[in-house]
Design brief:
The protein has about 325 residues and is α/β, with parallel strands linked by helices. The protein has 2 domains: about 1-125 and about 290-320, Medium-chain alcohol dehydrogenases, catalytic domain (Quinone Oxidoreductase, Chain A, domain 1, Alpha-Beta Complex), CATH 3.90.180.10; about 130-265, 3-Layer(aba) Sandwich (Rossmann fold), CATH 3.40.50.720. It contains 11 helices and 15 strands. The protein has helices at about 40-50, 55-60, 120-125, 125-140, 160-170, 180-185, 215-220, 240, 245-255, 270-280, 300-310; strands at about 1-5, 15-20, 30-40, 70-80, 90-95, 105, 110-115, 150, 170-175, 190-195, 205-210, 225-230, 260-265, 290-295, 315-320. Strands 3, 4, 5, 6, 7, 14 and 15 form a 7-stranded mixed sheet that branches. Strands 10-9-8-11-12-13 form a 6-stranded parallel sheet, with helices on both faces. The chain has a two-stranded antiparallel ribbon with strand order 1-2. A hairpin with an 8-residue loop joins strand 1 and strand 2 (about 15-20). The longest helix has 14 residues, at about 125-140. Bound molecules: NADP nicotinamide-adenine-dinucleotide phosphate (NAP). NADP nicotinamide-adenine-dinucleotide phosphate binds near residues 132, 157, 158, 234 and 236. NADP nicotinamide-adenine-dinucleotide phosphate (NAP) binds near residues 157, 158, 177, 181 and 235.
Length: about 325
Protein backbone atom coordinates (compact mmCIF):
# COMPACT_ATOMS: atom_id res chain seq x y z
CA UNK A 1 0.00 0.00 0.00
CA UNK A 2 1.03 3.66 -0.36
CA UNK A 3 1.85 5.63 2.80
CA UNK A 4 3.68 8.69 4.08
CA UNK A 5 6.65 7.33 6.00
CA UNK A 6 9.50 8.85 7.98
CA UNK A 7 12.80 7.31 9.12
CA UNK A 8 14.33 10.31 10.94
CA UNK A 9 12.94 13.33 12.80
CA UNK A 10 13.09 16.59 10.87
CA UNK A 11 11.31 18.85 8.41
CA UNK A 12 8.79 17.83 5.75
CA UNK A 13 11.81 16.77 3.67
CA UNK A 14 12.14 13.70 5.89
CA UNK A 15 8.71 12.49 4.72
CA UNK A 16 8.45 10.00 1.85
CA UNK A 17 5.48 8.75 -0.21
CA UNK A 18 6.36 5.08 -0.47
CA UNK A 19 5.12 1.49 -0.74
CA UNK A 20 4.91 -0.39 2.57
CA UNK A 21 3.29 -3.69 3.57
CA UNK A 22 -0.42 -3.49 4.38
CA UNK A 23 -0.89 -4.02 8.15
CA UNK A 24 -2.09 -7.43 9.30
CA UNK A 25 -5.04 -7.28 11.69
CA UNK A 26 -4.46 -8.62 15.25
CA UNK A 27 -7.08 -10.40 17.39
CA UNK A 28 -8.34 -7.18 19.04
CA UNK A 29 -7.77 -4.94 16.04
CA UNK A 30 -9.69 -3.40 13.17
CA UNK A 31 -8.13 -2.83 9.74
CA UNK A 32 -9.67 0.01 7.77
CA UNK A 33 -9.37 1.23 4.23
CA UNK A 34 -8.61 4.90 4.92
CA UNK A 35 -10.81 7.36 3.05
CA UNK A 36 -9.64 10.51 4.80
CA UNK A 37 -7.06 11.45 7.43
CA UNK A 38 -7.00 14.47 9.73
CA UNK A 39 -4.18 17.02 9.86
CA UNK A 40 -3.28 19.02 12.98
CA UNK A 41 -0.18 20.33 14.81
CA UNK A 42 0.40 16.93 16.46
CA UNK A 43 1.55 15.74 13.02
CA UNK A 44 4.22 18.46 13.14
CA UNK A 45 5.21 17.42 16.69
CA UNK A 46 5.54 13.78 15.63
CA UNK A 47 7.47 14.73 12.48
CA UNK A 48 9.99 16.98 14.23
CA UNK A 49 10.19 15.01 17.48
CA UNK A 50 9.60 18.28 19.36
CA UNK A 51 9.43 18.95 22.21
CA UNK A 52 12.43 16.69 22.80
CA UNK A 53 10.91 15.42 26.05
CA UNK A 54 8.18 13.80 23.88
CA UNK A 55 10.76 11.49 22.29
CA UNK A 56 10.73 9.42 25.48
CA UNK A 57 7.34 8.15 24.26
CA UNK A 58 7.65 8.64 20.48
CA UNK A 59 11.11 7.11 20.00
CA UNK A 60 14.48 8.50 21.09
CA UNK A 61 16.46 8.47 17.81
CA UNK A 62 13.65 8.10 15.24
CA UNK A 63 9.86 7.75 15.32
CA UNK A 64 8.79 4.34 16.65
CA UNK A 65 5.80 4.46 14.31
CA UNK A 66 7.10 4.82 10.75
CA UNK A 67 3.87 6.02 9.12
CA UNK A 68 2.68 9.57 10.02
CA UNK A 69 -0.91 10.63 10.61
CA UNK A 70 -3.07 10.32 13.67
CA UNK A 71 -6.79 10.63 12.79
CA UNK A 72 -8.67 8.58 10.19
CA UNK A 73 -12.09 7.78 8.79
CA UNK A 74 -12.73 4.87 6.49
CA UNK A 75 -14.36 1.52 5.82
CA UNK A 76 -13.63 -1.62 7.82
CA UNK A 77 -11.67 -4.08 5.69
CA UNK A 78 -11.10 -6.83 8.28
CA UNK A 79 -11.58 -7.44 12.01
CA UNK A 80 -9.68 -9.61 14.50
CA UNK A 81 -11.24 -12.69 16.11
CA UNK A 82 -12.07 -10.87 19.38
CA UNK A 83 -13.63 -7.75 17.81
CA UNK A 84 -17.34 -7.46 18.62
CA UNK A 85 -18.52 -3.96 17.64
CA UNK A 86 -17.47 -3.79 13.98
CA UNK A 87 -17.59 -5.91 10.84
CA UNK A 88 -16.26 -5.49 7.30
CA UNK A 89 -18.06 -2.73 5.42
CA UNK A 90 -18.79 -0.58 8.51
CA UNK A 91 -17.95 3.11 8.20
CA UNK A 92 -15.80 4.19 11.16
CA UNK A 93 -13.54 6.96 12.45
CA UNK A 94 -11.01 7.31 15.23
CA UNK A 95 -7.56 8.27 16.49
CA UNK A 96 -5.45 5.85 14.48
CA UNK A 97 -1.65 6.01 14.40
CA UNK A 98 -0.38 5.61 10.82
CA UNK A 99 -3.43 7.27 9.25
CA UNK A 100 -1.53 8.74 6.25
CA UNK A 101 -1.82 5.46 4.36
CA UNK A 102 -4.23 3.49 2.22
CA UNK A 103 -4.90 1.11 5.12
CA UNK A 104 -4.53 1.59 8.88
CA UNK A 105 -4.90 -0.81 11.78
CA UNK A 106 -5.65 -0.09 15.45
CA UNK A 107 -7.32 -1.70 18.49
CA UNK A 108 -11.12 -1.82 18.36
CA UNK A 109 -11.44 0.72 21.22
CA UNK A 110 -9.85 3.42 19.05
CA UNK A 111 -12.85 3.45 16.68
CA UNK A 112 -16.45 4.59 16.69
CA UNK A 113 -19.10 4.25 13.99
CA UNK A 114 -18.95 7.28 11.70
CA UNK A 115 -21.91 9.65 12.23
CA UNK A 116 -24.07 9.19 9.14
CA UNK A 117 -24.43 12.94 8.65
CA UNK A 118 -20.66 13.47 8.41
CA UNK A 119 -18.59 12.84 5.28
CA UNK A 120 -15.42 10.76 5.67
CA UNK A 121 -13.45 14.02 5.46
CA UNK A 122 -15.47 15.65 8.26
CA UNK A 123 -15.22 12.53 10.44
CA UNK A 124 -11.43 12.39 9.96
CA UNK A 125 -11.26 16.01 11.15
CA UNK A 126 -12.94 15.22 14.46
CA UNK A 127 -10.96 12.80 16.70
CA UNK A 128 -7.87 14.60 18.07
CA UNK A 129 -9.18 18.16 17.77
CA UNK A 130 -12.67 17.25 19.00
CA UNK A 131 -11.42 15.20 21.95
CA UNK A 132 -9.13 18.08 22.94
CA UNK A 133 -11.98 20.59 22.77
CA UNK A 134 -14.40 18.36 24.69
CA UNK A 135 -11.93 17.32 27.41
CA UNK A 136 -10.68 20.90 27.74
CA UNK A 137 -14.13 22.38 28.26
CA UNK A 138 -16.00 19.57 30.01
CA UNK A 139 -13.50 17.51 32.00
CA UNK A 140 -10.76 20.04 32.77
CA UNK A 141 -12.70 23.30 32.48
CA UNK A 142 -15.90 22.05 34.19
CA UNK A 143 -17.93 24.33 31.89
CA UNK A 144 -21.39 25.35 33.19
CA UNK A 145 -24.42 26.86 31.45
CA UNK A 146 -24.44 30.66 31.53
CA UNK A 147 -20.69 30.99 32.07
CA UNK A 148 -18.64 33.56 30.21
CA UNK A 149 -16.11 31.54 28.23
CA UNK A 150 -13.11 32.86 26.27
CA UNK A 151 -11.68 30.60 23.57
CA UNK A 152 -8.27 31.76 22.34
CA UNK A 153 -7.58 30.20 18.94
CA UNK A 154 -11.30 30.01 18.09
CA UNK A 155 -10.76 29.62 14.35
CA UNK A 156 -8.31 26.71 14.63
CA UNK A 157 -8.73 22.97 14.44
CA UNK A 158 -9.51 22.65 18.16
CA UNK A 159 -10.98 26.12 18.72
CA UNK A 160 -13.68 26.02 16.03
CA UNK A 161 -15.02 22.82 17.61
CA UNK A 162 -14.66 24.29 21.12
CA UNK A 163 -16.82 27.28 20.11
CA UNK A 164 -19.61 24.94 19.00
CA UNK A 165 -19.27 22.74 22.10
CA UNK A 166 -19.24 25.71 24.49
CA UNK A 167 -22.46 26.99 22.92
CA UNK A 168 -23.92 23.47 23.20
CA UNK A 169 -23.08 23.55 26.95
CA UNK A 170 -24.98 26.84 27.25
CA UNK A 171 -22.07 29.26 27.66
CA UNK A 172 -21.68 32.84 26.48
CA UNK A 173 -18.73 32.55 24.11
CA UNK A 174 -16.06 35.04 23.09
CA UNK A 175 -13.69 33.76 20.42
CA UNK A 176 -10.19 35.07 19.69
CA UNK A 177 -8.81 34.75 16.15
CA UNK A 178 -7.39 36.87 13.32
CA UNK A 179 -9.64 39.34 11.48
CA UNK A 180 -10.19 37.33 8.28
CA UNK A 181 -11.59 34.42 10.32
CA UNK A 182 -13.84 36.53 12.58
CA UNK A 183 -17.06 36.27 10.54
CA UNK A 184 -16.73 32.49 10.33
CA UNK A 185 -16.22 32.20 14.11
CA UNK A 186 -19.38 34.25 14.69
CA UNK A 187 -21.20 31.97 12.23
CA UNK A 188 -20.07 28.96 14.30
CA UNK A 189 -22.01 30.44 17.23
CA UNK A 190 -19.59 32.72 19.08
CA UNK A 191 -21.40 35.68 20.65
CA UNK A 192 -18.40 38.01 20.32
CA UNK A 193 -15.06 37.87 18.51
CA UNK A 194 -11.79 39.59 19.40
CA UNK A 195 -9.30 40.06 16.55
CA UNK A 196 -5.94 39.42 18.22
CA UNK A 197 -4.07 41.21 15.42
CA UNK A 198 -5.66 44.59 16.22
CA UNK A 199 -7.33 44.39 19.64
CA UNK A 200 -6.26 43.68 23.23
CA UNK A 201 -8.03 40.84 25.00
CA UNK A 202 -10.68 42.35 27.29
CA UNK A 203 -13.59 41.13 29.43
CA UNK A 204 -13.98 38.91 32.50
CA UNK A 205 -14.38 35.19 32.09
CA UNK A 206 -15.34 32.18 34.22
CA UNK A 207 -13.37 29.91 31.91
CA UNK A 208 -10.57 30.50 29.41
CA UNK A 209 -9.47 27.80 26.98
CA UNK A 210 -6.16 28.92 25.48
CA UNK A 211 -5.24 27.00 22.33
CA UNK A 212 -2.83 29.67 21.03
CA UNK A 213 -0.30 29.39 23.81
CA UNK A 214 1.69 32.59 23.62
CA UNK A 215 0.30 34.86 26.34
CA UNK A 216 1.85 35.18 29.81
CA UNK A 217 -0.03 33.55 32.67
CA UNK A 218 -0.43 36.92 34.42
CA UNK A 219 -2.21 38.41 31.39
CA UNK A 220 -4.60 35.47 31.14
CA UNK A 221 -5.28 35.46 34.90
CA UNK A 222 -6.17 39.17 34.76
CA UNK A 223 -9.10 38.19 32.50
CA UNK A 224 -10.52 35.62 34.96
CA UNK A 225 -13.20 36.05 37.62
CA UNK A 226 -11.72 35.62 41.16
CA UNK A 227 -12.33 31.86 41.09
CA UNK A 228 -12.20 31.38 37.31
CA UNK A 229 -10.52 28.49 35.48
CA UNK A 230 -7.70 28.72 32.94
CA UNK A 231 -7.10 25.70 30.70
CA UNK A 232 -3.83 25.79 28.77
CA UNK A 233 -4.04 23.54 25.74
CA UNK A 234 -1.87 24.93 23.02
CA UNK A 235 1.32 26.63 22.07
CA UNK A 236 4.69 25.84 20.65
CA UNK A 237 6.74 28.27 22.82
CA UNK A 238 9.22 27.05 25.43
CA UNK A 239 12.32 25.93 23.53
CA UNK A 240 13.19 22.56 22.00
CA UNK A 241 12.94 20.60 25.23
CA UNK A 242 9.63 21.86 26.59
CA UNK A 243 7.84 23.54 23.63
CA UNK A 244 4.17 23.83 24.51
CA UNK A 245 4.67 22.37 27.99
CA UNK A 246 6.62 24.83 30.14
CA UNK A 247 3.79 27.34 30.68
CA UNK A 248 1.33 24.58 31.61
CA UNK A 249 3.84 23.20 34.08
CA UNK A 250 4.28 26.62 35.71
CA UNK A 251 0.50 27.05 35.87
CA UNK A 252 -0.06 23.70 37.55
CA UNK A 253 2.68 24.46 40.11
CA UNK A 254 1.17 27.88 40.87
CA UNK A 255 -2.46 26.73 41.05
CA UNK A 256 -2.50 25.41 44.67
CA UNK A 257 -1.40 28.85 45.92
CA UNK A 258 -4.02 31.01 44.14
CA UNK A 259 -7.82 31.12 43.95
CA UNK A 260 -7.85 30.61 40.19
CA UNK A 261 -7.93 27.02 38.88
CA UNK A 262 -4.94 26.78 36.51
CA UNK A 263 -4.79 23.59 34.47
CA UNK A 264 -2.78 22.05 31.66
CA UNK A 265 -4.54 20.00 29.00
CA UNK A 266 -3.34 16.77 27.47
CA UNK A 267 -6.18 15.06 25.65
CA UNK A 268 -5.20 11.46 24.97
CA UNK A 269 -7.43 9.20 22.85
CA UNK A 270 -10.36 8.05 24.99
CA UNK A 271 -13.19 5.78 23.78
CA UNK A 272 -15.78 7.48 26.02
CA UNK A 273 -14.89 10.95 24.75
CA UNK A 274 -14.87 9.81 21.12
CA UNK A 275 -18.28 8.17 21.68
CA UNK A 276 -19.74 11.40 23.10
CA UNK A 277 -18.30 13.33 20.14
CA UNK A 278 -19.93 10.90 17.73
CA UNK A 279 -23.29 11.42 19.49
CA UNK A 280 -22.90 15.22 19.46
CA UNK A 281 -21.96 15.18 15.78
CA UNK A 282 -24.93 12.95 14.96
CA UNK A 283 -27.20 15.39 16.83
CA UNK A 284 -25.73 18.30 14.85
CA UNK A 285 -24.25 19.95 17.97
CA UNK A 286 -20.75 19.91 16.51
CA UNK A 287 -19.72 19.84 12.85
CA UNK A 288 -16.09 20.01 11.73
CA UNK A 289 -15.47 22.77 9.20
CA UNK A 290 -13.03 21.88 6.44
CA UNK A 291 -10.95 24.61 4.91
CA UNK A 292 -9.06 22.55 2.36
CA UNK A 293 -8.27 18.98 1.37
CA UNK A 294 -5.00 17.58 0.03
CA UNK A 295 -4.26 14.22 -1.63
CA UNK A 296 -2.06 11.67 0.20
CA UNK A 297 1.18 12.48 -1.69
CA UNK A 298 0.63 16.16 -0.80
CA UNK A 299 1.02 15.68 2.99
CA UNK A 300 4.24 17.78 3.14
CA UNK A 301 2.43 20.67 1.41
CA UNK A 302 -0.54 20.25 3.76
CA UNK A 303 1.76 20.53 6.80
CA UNK A 304 3.32 23.73 5.41
CA UNK A 305 -0.19 25.08 4.74
CA UNK A 306 -1.28 24.34 8.32
CA UNK A 307 1.76 26.14 9.73
CA UNK A 308 1.62 29.23 7.53
CA UNK A 309 -1.84 29.88 6.07
CA UNK A 310 -4.02 30.48 9.19
CA UNK A 311 -6.64 28.08 7.82
CA UNK A 312 -10.13 28.19 9.30
CA UNK A 313 -11.11 24.89 10.93
CA UNK A 314 -9.41 21.76 9.64
CA UNK A 315 -7.22 20.53 6.83
CA UNK A 316 -7.90 16.96 5.73
CA UNK A 317 -5.98 14.46 3.61
CA UNK A 318 -8.13 12.50 1.18
CA UNK A 319 -7.07 8.90 0.62
CA UNK A 320 -8.80 6.64 -1.86
N1 LIG B 1 -3.16 19.74 24.74
C1 LIG B 1 -3.59 18.87 23.82
O1 LIG B 1 -4.00 17.74 24.14
C2 LIG B 1 -3.58 19.35 22.41
C3 LIG B 1 -4.29 18.64 21.42
C4 LIG B 1 -4.33 19.15 20.15
C5 LIG B 1 -3.63 20.32 19.86
N2 LIG B 1 -2.89 20.93 20.81
C6 LIG B 1 -2.15 22.16 20.54
O2 LIG B 1 -3.11 23.21 20.51
C7 LIG B 1 -2.70 24.24 19.64
C8 LIG B 1 -3.81 24.58 18.69
O3 LIG B 1 -4.12 23.44 17.89
P1 LIG B 1 -5.06 23.63 16.62
O4 LIG B 1 -5.17 22.33 15.94
O5 LIG B 1 -6.30 24.33 17.01
O6 LIG B 1 -4.12 24.63 15.76
P2 LIG B 1 -4.50 25.58 14.55
O7 LIG B 1 -5.56 24.97 13.71
O8 LIG B 1 -3.21 25.96 13.93
O9 LIG B 1 -5.17 26.88 15.26
C9 LIG B 1 -4.41 27.87 15.92
C10 LIG B 1 -5.36 28.94 16.41
O10 LIG B 1 -4.65 29.90 17.17
C11 LIG B 1 -4.97 31.22 16.68
N3 LIG B 1 -3.82 32.09 16.95
C12 LIG B 1 -2.61 32.11 16.34
N4 LIG B 1 -1.83 33.07 16.88
C13 LIG B 1 -2.58 33.67 17.85
C14 LIG B 1 -2.33 34.73 18.76
N5 LIG B 1 -1.17 35.38 18.80
N6 LIG B 1 -3.31 35.07 19.61
C15 LIG B 1 -4.51 34.42 19.60
N7 LIG B 1 -4.80 33.41 18.77
C16 LIG B 1 -3.84 33.04 17.89
C17 LIG B 1 -5.26 31.02 15.22
O11 LIG B 1 -6.03 32.11 14.71
P3 LIG B 1 -5.94 32.57 13.15
O12 LIG B 1 -5.73 31.30 12.35
O13 LIG B 1 -7.26 33.19 12.89
O14 LIG B 1 -4.76 33.46 13.06
C18 LIG B 1 -6.07 29.72 15.30
O15 LIG B 1 -7.38 30.01 15.71
C19 LIG B 1 -1.40 23.74 18.99
O16 LIG B 1 -0.33 24.30 19.70
C20 LIG B 1 -1.44 22.24 19.20
O17 LIG B 1 -0.16 21.67 19.25
C21 LIG B 1 -2.88 20.48 22.08
Amino acid sequence: MKAITQDAYGTTETLAYTDVPTPVVGDDEVLIQVRAAGMDPSVWHLMTGLPLVGRLALGIRKPKIRIRGWDAAGVVEAVGSRVTRFRPGDEVFGAVPGAFAEFACAPEIKFQHKPVNLSFEQAAALPTSGMTALVGLRDVGHIQPGQNVLIIGASGGVGHLAVQLAKHFGAQVTGVCSGPNAEAVLALGADTVIDYTSEKLTGTYDLILDMAGNRPLAELRSLLTPTGTLVLGGGENGGRWMAGIDRSLRAVLLSPFVRHRLRGLLALPDPEVLGVLAELATAGAVTPKLTRTFALPEVPTAIDHLLTAHPLGKIVITVS
